[in-house]
Design a protein that fits this description.
The chain has 39 helices and 10 strands. The protein is mainly alpha-helical. Helix 26 links the parallel strand 9 and strand 10 (727-733). It is globular and about 85 Å long.
C-alpha cells in the first residue's frame, strides 16, 4: 500500500552526506505515508489517477507524450476528481517542504556542533526543538542521542567553518589582519532591523502552519531515535509510534480545509505575523547574542561584543496604510496594544520560571543592600501583596522581589487591556497608580538589572535572567517598532484641501512647481501658527490622513517614541513630498518649529527607476534646508546624551532612505532595477557624506527574485562598497517569514547570516564597485535590458490582453489571503495600477517567472556581439570577482531553473480565446526565445553544463518539484477554462453547468495553493 505511488518518483542526484541520505530517506517515507493516507481516504481510483498524472515525471523524451495524455485525461475529470487531485498534490508539496526545511535546520545544527566545543553543542541541543511536544516524546527522552548523533555527523560533514556564520567571520577577519579597533568601532554601532510585513504572499493558513510544526517535531523525534539506536532494534516501538503519529497528522491535514475561509482582517494579519515572535523569535534573540559573544571572544578576546539590541525587529502589520483602507488609526492603536500584550505574556512566563530558579535564602547567600532597600519600597507601595507573601518568602529575597515584579507586570497587562477596550486611539485615559505598574519597559528592565547586579556581586549568575534582560532590551514593551506608510499623493491631496479651505494661495497648491511647493512648505514649517482647524471640514481621505498623525502622537505619548517613530512615504518624487509630511507632523505636535525637534523620522521610498535616479538630488535639496538638518540633528541645540543604554531615541544625524525593488522591477525589469538600486545607494551615500549625515538604507525586498528576493547573506555582501556602514534595514515579507522563522535553528541561522553579512560588507567590502569601466559596461547592459523589457511589457499592444488571458491574475485577485486590494486603484485593469505582488504571483503560477529574467539575455547578447571572445572572458571574470554581478546572475539562474515553457505553452494554447490565439502564440514565441537566449548565455558565463550545477542542493530541490508541479498546472488550466466559460455564459444569460461558480472558483484556488507550495514562491 505504501509503495503505490513510487513507480514514477523522480530520481534525484545522489547526495553523499549523511544529512543528504537521511533527507532522501525521509522524503521516501513521507511520500509513502502520503500515498497510504490517500488510499485509505479516497480509495484506489484516486491513487491510480495520481499515478497516471505523475507519469509526466518520466524521461524528457517521454515527458511530452505523457503530458499530452495527462492533459486530455484531466479535461475529462469531473470537479470532485479535479479538486481531490489538486488537494493531493498541494499536500504532497507541503510535506516535502517540511522535510526539506527540517533537514536544512539539521544540516545547520550539525555544522555548528562540529565547530563548537562539546559543552556548547550540548547547550544548542537543549535550546532547540524541545518546546512543546504535542503528544510526541520529548527529544531529551532518548539517552545519549546527541553524542551518538554527532559521531556519524562528523564523519560526513566538512570540518571547515561555514561561510556566513560568526565562527567563520571572526577568524576570517583575523587572517586578513583587520585592525581590532575597526572591528570594535563597527560593533559599537551595529544595527540590524528586520521588518515584518503583511504583503499578501502568505497563502498558507495558520491552521496548516501549526500542523507543519507538529510534523517537524515528529521528524525530529525520528532522527533522535535512529541516531541513538543506529544498529539496534531496541527503538522499533518508539519508531513505529512516531510513524503512526506522522500518519495521523497527515490524515488530519487531509481532512482540513487548506483555503482561508474569509478575507482576513488587519488584526488577523497582526496575529498571524506576530506568532513567529511567540513561537520562535522571543527565545532566539538571546541565543543570537550568546553565539556572537562566544565567537568574538574566541578570535578577539579583547573586544567588547555589541549591545544585545544590535538586532531588532519592526512591523508594518497594522500600520501600513498605503493602498489599504482597512488600516485606520483605531486598528493601529489596537495593534500596538496587541504587541504589548504579547510581549508581556512572554515576560510573565519567564518570571515564573525565574521564581522557581532563584530560591536563594538569606541564610546561605548575601544580597546587595540596594535590593533590600528596593524590597522595603515595594512593601510600602504594595502592602497587601507583602502581607500575603511575607511569611512564604521571608528568607527568600529574590523570590519576593520577583513576586512584586510579577504583580506590577500583571497590572501593566491589565492597564493595556483597558487601553485597548477604551478606544485609546481617541485619547481616552486610563487611571492607575503609576507605582503599581510599569509605565515603560525601562522601569521593568531596571528591576531585572538590580537582581542581576545583586547576583553578580555575590558571585552568582543566572542564564535565564540574562536571557530575559536581553529580551527586554530588544523587545521592550512594544515587541516590534511599527512603521507607518502612506502614498505621497495622499499627503499632497490633504494639503491641497487645507490650503483651499483657508484660501492661503492665489492658485491651487497642486499647480505650484516643485520648487514653489518646497518654498511654501518651508515657510509654513517655520511658523508656530496652527494650520489645521480643530474641526475637520475635509474629505474622508483628508480627515483620515490628519487623524493618522494625531494617532501617532497619542501612541508616542502612551507607549513611548520607540513604538512608532518612522513614517514612510511611498512613491516619493520630490523634496516637497517629505516636507508635506513634516508639516502634517507639526500640526499633530510631532515637530516643534521653535526647537527643531521632531519625534518622527520621515523616510522617503524611491520605487520607480526615474525616482531612483532623482533620489540623490531630492535628498540634497532636503539637506540644504536648515530646519530639515536640525530635525536630523535632534534640534537646533546640541542634543544631550542619554544615560540610558537601551531603548534610546534614534541616532542623531541619521537619515533613513527606503529603496523599492518591486515597483522598479515591474517598471524596468530585473537587471535594470537592480543596477539602478545599486547606483542609487552609492549616490545617496555620497550625498549624505557631503552634509555629514549618516545613511541607513531600508531595502524593500520581497520574497521572489522578481521583487528583490533571494538569499539575504549574498544580497547584503553584494551591496556597494561603503554603503552599509554597520546599519541595514530589510523587509521580511509573506512566505519568507515561514521559510526563515518557522523553526528555531533556521531562525537563528538566518539572523546570524544577516548579522555576519552586515559586518562583512562593512569591513571587508571589495573595490570592484568603484571600477569605472565595469560600471560603464553594467550601465550598457542595464539600458539594453530595460529597453527590451519595456518593449514587451509596455509597448507591445497585445501584451496586456495576453497577460490577463493566459495567467490566473483575475483569480488571484479573489484569494482570501490579504486585507489589502490587489490594485492601488479599484476598477482599473492596467499594469500601472496592479501591485507588484500579484504581477509576480501570476507569472510564477504559469511557470514563466518572467519579471525575474526577461531582458537579461538580450542585454548580454548585445555586449558579446561587440567582441565575442574577449567580452565573454570579461563577463566570466565579473562573475568570479564582482559580488553584485555574481548575485544578479545567480538569481537569474535560479529563476530560469524553475521555468517550464511546455507548461506555459499549455496555458497559452488552452486559455487564449480562438480569435486571440495567433497573436498570443507570436508573443509567447518571443518570450520563449528570450528564455533560451538567457539560459544559454548564463551557462556560458558560469561555465556549467546545466543550470544550478554549482549548487547541487538547490538543484535537487528544484528538480524534485519541477516535474511534479506539471499535473497541477494542467489541473489549473482545466478549472480556469471552466470558470471563465461559466462567467461568459452567465453574462450571456444562459448557464449550462452542473457546478456553481463558487465550486469552480474553489477548485481553481486549490490549484493556486498547490503550485505556490510547489514553487516555494508566491509574490
Amino acid at each position: 500500500m505504501m509503495s503505490r505511488l513510487q513507480s514514477n518518483r523522480t530520481e534525484l542526484k545522489p547526495v553523499a552526506s549523511a544529512i543528504g541520505l537521511l533527507l532522501q530517506h525521509r522524503l521516501r517515507l513521507v511520500e509513502d505515508l502520503w500515498g497510504a493516507v490517500l488510499y485509505d481516504e479516497c480509495g484506489q481510483p484516486l491513487v491510480d489517477m495520481l499515478k497516471r498524472m505523475r507519469s509526466t515525471e518520466s524521461e524528457p523524451e517521454q515527458a511530452a507524450l505523457a503530458s499530452e495524455t495527462v492533459s486530455r485525461s484531466i479535461e475529462e475529470f469531473d470537479l470532485d476528481d479535479a479538486v481531490r487531485a489538486a488537494r493531493a498534490f498541494a499536500l504532497y508539496f507541503q510535506l516535502i517542504n517540511i522535510v526539506e526545511q527540517h533537514y536544512e535546520q539539521r544540516d545547520r545544527q550539525s555544522t555548528r556542533r562540529i565547530n563548537r566545543p562539546l559543552e556548547n553543542a550540548d547547550l544548542a541541543d537543549s535550546a532547540v526543538g524541545t518546546n512543546g511536544t504535542d503528544g510526541i516524546h520529548n527529544s531529551t527522552s532518548v539517552p545519549g542521542a546527541n553524542y551518538l548523533e554527532r559521531s556519524w555527523q562528523q564523519e560526513d560533514t566538512a570540518t571547515e567553518r561555514a561561510a556566513g556564520t560568526f565562527d567563520w567571520l571572526f577568524p576570517h577577519m583575523q587572517q586578513l589582519n583587520v585592525p581590532p579597533r575597526q572591528i570594535q568601532q563597527l560593533l559599537d554601532r551595529l544595527e540590524i532591523r528586520l521588518v515584518f510585513t503583511a504583503h499578501p504572499t502568505e497563502i498558507v493558513r495558520q491552521t496548516i502552519r501549526q500542523k507543519q510544526r507538529r510534523i517537524s517535531r515528529i521528524l525530529h523525534q525520528l532522527d533522535r531515535i535512529e541516531a541513538a539506536y543506529p544498529m539496534l532494534g531496541a527503538a522499533a516501538a518508539w519508531e513505529t509510534e512516531a510513524v503512526q503519529q506522522l500518519t495521523e497528522e497527515i490524515r488530519l491535514w487531509w481532512r482540513t480545509d487548506e483555503l482561508h475561509q474569509f478575507k482576513p482582517s488587519v488584526l488577523d494579519e497582526v496575529e498571524n505575523t506576530l506568532h513567529y515572535f511567540r513561537e520562535v523569535l522571543f527565545d532566539a534573540v538571546p541565543q543570537l547574542s550568546l553565539r556572537l559573544r562566544q565567537s568574538l571572544q574566541s578570535a578577539f578576546p579583547g573586544l567588547k561584543p555589541p549591545r544585545n539590541f544590535f538586532c531588532r525587529f519592526g512591523s508594518w502589520v497594522g500600520s501600513d496604510r498605503d493602498g489599504n483602507p482597512s488600516v485606520t488609526p483605531d486598528v493601529t492603536w489596537e495593534t500596538a496594544c496587541y504587541q504589548r500584550n504579547l510581549v508581556i505574556e512572554q515576560y510573565l512566563r519567564a518570571l515564573k520560571k525565574l521564581s522557581d530558579l532563584l530560591s536563594l535564602s538569606l541564610h546561605w547567600s548575601d544580597v546587595l543592600p540596594e535590593l533590600l532597600d528596593a524590597l522595603e519600597q515595594d512593601r510600602l507601595q504594595m502592602p497587601s501583596l507583602y502581607e500575603r507573601l511575607a511569611i512564604r518568602y521571608r528568607q527568600e529575597p529574590y523570590r519576593l522581589k520577583l513576586a512584586y515584579i510579577q504583580r506590577r507586570l500583571e497590572n501593566t497587562r491589565e492597564r493595556n487591556a483597558q487601553l485597548s477596550r477604551r478606544d485609546g486611539a481617541a485619547g481616552v485615559p486610563v487611571q492607575m497608580d503609576p507605582r503599581a505598574y510599569y509605565p515603560t519597559g525601562e522601569s521593568f528592565l531596571a528591576e531585572l538589572r538590580l537582581i542581576q547586579r545583586s547576583l553578580s556581586e555575590t558571585g552568582l549568575s543566572c542564564g535565564d535572567l540574562d536571557a530575559l534582560v536581553c529580551q527586554v532590551e530588544v523587545y521592550g514593551f512594544n515587541l516590534a517598532e511599527l512603521d507607518m506608510r502612506q502614498e505621497s499623493t495622499r499627503h499632497a491631496d490633504t494639503i491641497e484641501e487645507i490650503v483651499s479651505y483657508l484660501q492661503l494661495l492665489d492658485r491651487p497648491y497642486k499647480e505650484l512647481l516643485p520648487a514653489e511647493r518646497a518654498a511654501w512648505l518651508t515657510a509654513e514649517l517655520k511658523t508656530r501658527r496652527p494650520l489645521i482647524p480643530g474641526e475637520l471640514p475635509f474629505s474622508d481621505k483628508a480627515r483620515e490622513a490628519i487623524e493618522t498623525f494625531r494617532c501617532l502622537r497619542r501612541l508616542q505619548q502612551e507607549f513611548g517614541q520607540q513604538v512608532c517613530r518612522t513614517y514612510i512615504i511611498s512613491m516619493s518624487h520630490e523634496a516637497s513630498d517629505i516636507l508635506e509630511v513634516l508639516l502634517l507632523a507639526k500640526e499633530a505636535g510631532l515637530y516643534d518649529p521653535a526647537t527643531g525637534i521632531s519625534s518622527v523620522q520621515i523616510v522617503p521610498l524611491f520605487e520607480t527607476v526615474d525616482d531612483l535616479k532623482k533620489a540623490p538630488q531630492v535628498m540634497s535639496d532636503l539637506f540644504d534646508l536648515t530646519l530639515y538638518r536640525a530635525c536630523l540633528a535632534g534640534g537646533f541645540a546640541e542634543p544631550q546624551p542619554s544615560e540610558n543604554e537601551v531603548l534610546q531615541p534614534a541616532p542623531t544625524n541619521l537619515q533613513e532612505v527606503m529603496l523599492g525593488y518591486s515597483d522598479s522591477n515591474k517598471d524596468s525589469g530585473f537587471l535594470s532595477s537592480n543596477w539602478e538600486i545599486h547606483k542609487a545607494q552609492k549616490a545617496l551615500q555620497s550625498a549624505a557624506q557631503q552634509y555629514g549625515v549618516s545613511l541607513r538604507i531600508f531595502h524593500g525586498r520581497g520574497g521572489s527574485v522578481g521583487r528583490g528576493g533571494g538569499p539575504a547573506y549574498e544580497a547584503i555582501v553584494a551591496q556597494p562598497n561603503r554603503t552599509v556602514g554597520g546599519r541595514i534595514k530589510i523587509t521580511e515579507q509573506g512566505e519568507v517569514l515561514a521559510s526563515k522563522y518557522s523553526l528555531p535553528d533556521l531562525a537563528l541561522y538566518h539572523l546570524e547570516t544577516a548579522t555576519t553579512a552586515v559586518v562583512q560588507a562593512s569591513l571587508l567590502g571589495s573595490g570592484f564597485d568603484d571600477i569605472q569601466p565595469w560600471n560603464e559596461i553594467m550601465e550598457e547592459l542595464a539600458v539594453r535590458s530595460r529597453q527590451h523589457y519595456r518593449a514587451l511589457i509596455y509597448e507591445n499592444p497585445d501584451f496586456l490582453d495576453f497577460f490577463l488571458s493566459v495567467t490566473p491574475i483575475q483569480e488571484i485577485g479573489q484569494l482570501q489571503i490579504s486585507s489589502r486590494p490587489a490594485r492601488r486603484k479599484s476598477g482599473k485593469k492596467d499594469l500601472s495600477s496592479l501591485r507588484a505582488i500579484p504581477w509576480v504571483f501570476s507569472w510564477t503560477q504559469m511557470r514563466v517567472l518572467l519579471p525575474a529574467w526577461y531582458g537579461v539575455g538580450t542585454a548580454l547578447q548585445g555586449f558579446l556581439r561587440q567582441e565575442s571572445e574577449e567580452n565573454l572572458k570579461l563577463l566570466r571574470y565579473f562573475y568570479l570577482k564582482w559580488p553584485f554581478f555574481k548575485v544578479a546572475m545567480s538569481k537569474v539562474e535560479m529563476t530560469l531553473a524553475k521555468v517550464d515553457l511546455q507548461v506555459a505553452e499549455h496555458y497559452v494554447r488552452e486559455l487564449a480565446a480562438p480569435g486571440d490565439l495567433e497573436r498570443f502564440e507570436r508573443l509567447f514565441a518571443q518570450i520563449a526565445g528570450e528564455y533560451h537566449l538567457t539560459r544559454d548565455l548564463i551557462l556560458q558565463i558560469t561555465g556549467y553544463e546545466h543550470l544550478l550545477d554549482g549548487d547541487p542542493e538547490l538543484q535537487r530541490s528544484v528538480q524534485l518539484r519541477n516535474a511534479s508541479i506539471v499535473p497541477l498546472g494542467f489541473l489549473q488550466v482545466s478549472l480556469l477554462k471552466r470558470l471563465r466559460q461559466y462567467t461568459q455564459q452567465a453574462a450571456a444569460g444562459a448557464i449550462h453547468f452542473r457546478y456553481s461558480k463558487e465550486e469552480l472558483l474553489r477548485g481553481a484556488m486549490l490549484t493556486i495553493n498547490g503550485i505556490a507550495a510547489g514553487m516555494r514562491n508566491t509574490g
